[in-house]
């Protein structure tokens, strides 16, 4: 169950980061509410995952899912640039997540 909580927390991090962008600096009500609600849910699930997982593993995986997911949303939904260096960075982050998962098994 901790890994389920952690993955869901990471996915919610992608949601809140994306809606934070859409909130226009918290000036738009609905995106701001979605940001704050999913942020609270993400932190709550991260806290539950940390009951059973090492701090370093949980936090690294959580931020990694958020970073890769938010990068993907930025490219797909916000038309952000895909450059070779950005892709290499994403692959390195993903590699770190996989290695952290393997190291905690």
UniProtKB/TrEMBL annotation:
Location in the cell: Cell membrane
GO terms of biological process kind? xenobiotic detoxification by transmembrane export across the plasma membrane
Which UniProt keywords are given for this protein, alphabetically ordered? Cell membrane, Membrane, Transmembrane, Transmembrane helix, Transport
- Superkingdom classification of source: Bacteria
Say yes or no: keyword Transferase present.
no
Residues crossing the lipid bilayer are 27-49, 61-79, 85-103
Q: Show the GO MF annotations.
A: transmembrane transporter activity
* InterPro entries on file: EmrE-like, Small_drug/metabolite_transptr, Small_multidrug_res
* Membrane topology classification: Multi-pass membrane protein
Q: Which GO terms describe its cellular component?
A: plasma membrane
| UniProt family annotation | Belongs to the drug/metabolite transporter (DMT) superfamily. Small multidrug resistance (SMR) (TC 2.A.7.1) family. Gdx/SugE subfamily.
- Recorded protein name is Guanidinium exporter
Source organism of this protein record:
Pontivivens marinum
Ranked from the top, the taxonomy reads: Bacteria, Pseudomonadati, Pseudomonadota, Alphaproteobacteria, Rhodobacterales
């Amino acid at each position: 169950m901790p890994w389920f909580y952690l993955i869901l927390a990471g996915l919610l991090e992608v949601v809140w980061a994306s809606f934070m962008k859409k909130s226009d600096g918290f000036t738009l009500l609905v995106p701001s509410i979605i940001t704050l609600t999913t942020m609270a849910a993400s932190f709550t699930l991260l806290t539950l995952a940390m009951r059973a997982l090492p701090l370093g593993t949980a936090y690294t995986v959580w931020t990694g899912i958020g970073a890769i997911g938010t990068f993907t949303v930025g490219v797909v939904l916000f038309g952000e640039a895909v450059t070779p260096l950005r892709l290499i960075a994403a692959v390195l982050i993903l590699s770190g997540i996989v290695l952290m998962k393997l190291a905690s098994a």
